[in-house]
From TrEMBL, chain A:
Annotated GO biological process: tRNA threonylcarbamoyladenosine modification
One Pfam family this sequence matches: TsaD
Organism: freshwater metagenome
NCBIfam families according to UniProt: T6A_YeaZ
UniProt protein name: Unannotated protein
GO cellular component: cytosol
Automatic annotation (TrEMBL), chain B:
Listed HAMAP family: TsaD (MF_01445)
EC number: 2.3.1.234
Gene3D superfamilies xref list: 3.30.420.40
Record-given protein name: N(6)-L-threonylcarbamoyladenine synthase
Keyword check for Kinase: no
Signal peptide as annotated in the record: none
Recorded catalytic activity of this chain's protein: L-threonylcarbamoyladenylate + adenosine(37) in tRNA = N(6)-L-threonylcarbamoyladenosine(37) in tRNA + AMP + H(+)
Molecular function terms, GO-annotated: metal ion binding; tRNA N(6)-L-threonylcarbamoyladenine synthase activity
């Protein structure tokens, strides 16, 4: 059984299950109190699934892109659990999980999360059926929502748009004929999707060890950006 | 508050990630250090001239598992031997603290062992006791670091009174700012300490602010007068400025700490925090403390700077008096010395 952790957005989510389905899950709009909620939620979800730590065969975690602090709460927890239990880890990209909100779609799917400071994280996908791993058409990037809109328009086809990146910048897509907006209820990745995606990785033996989970920040810390600009202009 | 049975065989695994050191330690019975691993980020932050929170948080996450793993391996125990898992819950950088708290709570959950969220300031007081278990209460502790400058009366375990504190900059902050101005590099404490012995501490008589009022201290004016003096006298050697600046800082810290110890009839004076690794502070406090009739305990330099052994020691005492911390504990960036994380 896989334990899935989702903390890269405003919500905190935990799920346990495997390729056959989800046994139990829980989700909380945490108001960025990820660390406070996560550990008790793991305990609760395991109880609901009538499972113990010993039943787990892998740990799955959303590694971003998303809220830096939230991501680290999830990754530090997943790494510690995996290290103590000597289990493999399946790192899952937040946008891959988010795209699964449109797993039924025949269109190209754009998954985008609000990156704050007027930017969005986004990537494009082609769905391969319910429960299947989405096919990435473009790699996750961070850009202005306007830049993203230009890229999407250039494709010249209808695009299913999911995630907070679109909800937050809805005005940019209001009268655009090609943008099919999934809207608010499908704006977040969930722990259930993290588990489903991880089950594919585990089947493909594509996992990492506890100490090797790489967060997907996509953006350097501010200080580093300032420092690099200063070096470049000197 | 439910107290918890701890004894000399209780093994605590503690994690510290409040600032720029990722540390983990295994301590038995509250004072027997089986391992103490510290992975420093000083080099990572040096180019920025100070600790950058987001950079620190990223580095903590990267170092976490290797450091925890090394602490267990070096202690020569099996993870199943751990009885208690602790982490610094505050004060500190929130994003950095959350890495250690999340990790420790997860380990406590997996192993079904109590979790203790530790107050970092309280832990610094235990650093002195870890190095010298014979110390008797009441103690007066001078806690000086990049973030804190406090004179504390430690009446017993968990019983503290803050007698004096900085009203502006922490001592370590003043060192960093002066060192940056003199272009001596980062961190400022060791940089100034290194060249000061070659200079004349009386070259410039910098002001000793608030020397005769109470036990609070102030370093902002000293920093400003150093900068103004250098502007007006560009020919004066850095070594003399460094020596004179350091003499002023140490003079104030020693005088106030000894005054505090006299006031409460302390059985000893203890140094703690990163700045207490400073060689002039150590030698002056020893000489002047002894002259005033006090035993002065100087924790080893490893115990002065941030480490997880002191976190484990504080956790052992807190578990005995207050019981475990809830698994819904978060991070408390502004935690006060007498506050216990819940
Ligand atoms: Zn400290």
């Amino acid at each position: 059984m896989i334990l899935g952790i989702e903390t890269s957005v405003d919500h905190v989510g935990v799920a346990v299950g495997d390729y056959r389905g989800i046994r139990a899950h829980s989700m909380l709009a945490s108001d960025r109190r990820h660390a406070e909620s996560l550990t008790p939620m793991i305990q609760f979800v395991l109880q609901q699934a009538d499972a113990t730590m010993a039943d787990l065969s892998a740990i799955a975690v959303d590694v971003g892109p998303g809220l830096f602090t939230g991501m680290r709460v999830g990754i530090a927890s997943a790494a510690s659990l995996a290290w103590a239990l000597e289990l493999p880890v399946a790192p899952v990209c937040s946008l891959d999980a988010l795209a699964m909100n449109a797993e039924w779609s025949d269109n190209v799917v754009a998954a985008s999360l609000d990156a704050r400071r007027g930017e969005v994280y986004w990537a494009l996908y082609r769905m391969r059926g319910v429960g299947a791993e989405p096919l990435r058409l473009t790699e996750p990037v961070v850009s202005s929502p306007e830049d993203m809109a230009v890229h999407l328009a250039d494709r010249g086809e209808d695009i299913m748009c999911v995630g907070t990146g679109f909800v937050r910048h809805a005005e940019l897509f209001e009268d655009v004929p090609w943008a099919l907006m999934a809207g608010e209820p499908h704006a977040f990745p969930t722990a259930q999707q993290v588990v489903v995606l991880a089950s594919h990785r585990i089947a493909a033996d594509d996992t990492v060890q506890a100490g090797d989970i790489a967060p997907m920040y996509l953006r350097a810390p501010d200080a580093e950006i300032n420092w690099l600009t200063r070096e470049a202009t000197q | 508050m439910t107290s918890h049975v701890v004894n000399e065989s209780t093994v605590v695994l503690a994690i510290e990630t409040s600032c720029d050191e990722t540390a983990a330690s295994v301590v038995m019975g509250g004072n027997d250090i089986l391992s103490s691993i510290v992975s420093s980020q000083i080099e990572i932050h040096a180019r920025f001239g100070g600790v950058v929170p987001e950079v620190a948080s990223r580095a903590h996450l990267e170092a976490l598992i290797p450091v925890v793993n090394a602490a267990i391996t070096e202690a020569g125990i099996l993870p199943s031997r751990v009885d208690v898992v602790a982490a610094t819950a505050g004060p500190g950088l929130i994003g950095a603290l959350l890495v250690g708290v999340s990790a420790a709570k997860s380990l406590a959950l997996v192993w079904d062992k109590p979790f203790v969220g530790v107050n970092h300031l309280e832990a610094h007081l235990y650093a002195g006791l870890l190095d010298d278990p014979t110390l008797q209460f009441p103690l007066v502790v001078l806690l000086v670091s990049g973030g804190h400058t406090m004179i504390i009366e430690m009446r017993g375990h968990g019983d503290y009174v803050i007698m004096g504190r900085t009203i502006d900059d922490a001592a370590g902050e003043a060192y960093d700012k002066v060192a940056r101005y003199l272009q001596l590099g980062y961190p400022g404490g060791p940089a100034i300490d290194k060249i000061a012995p070659d200079g004349n501490p009386h070259a410039v008589e910098f002001p000793r602010a608030m020397m005769h009022d109470g036990l609070d201290v102030s370093f902002s004016g000293l920093k400003t007068s150093v900068i103004n003096y250098v502007k007006k006298n560009p020919g004066v050697a850095n070594v003399d400025i460094a020596a004179s600046f350091q003499a002023a800082v140490v003079d104030v810290l020693c005088a106030k700490t000894i005054k505090a110890a006299q006031k409460v009839g302390a059985k000893g004076i203890v140094l703690g925090g990163g700045v207490s690794a400073n060689s002039l502070l150590r030698s002056e406090m020893t000489t002047r403390g002894a002259a005033a009739g006090f035993t002065v305990a100087l924790p080893s330099r490893d115990m002065c700077t941030d480490n997880a052994a002191m976190i484990a020691a504080a956790a052992w005492h807190r578990l005995a008096s207050d019981g475990p911390t809830s698994l819904s504990c978060g991070a408390y960036p502004n935690l006060k010395l007498d506050a216990v994380p819940r």
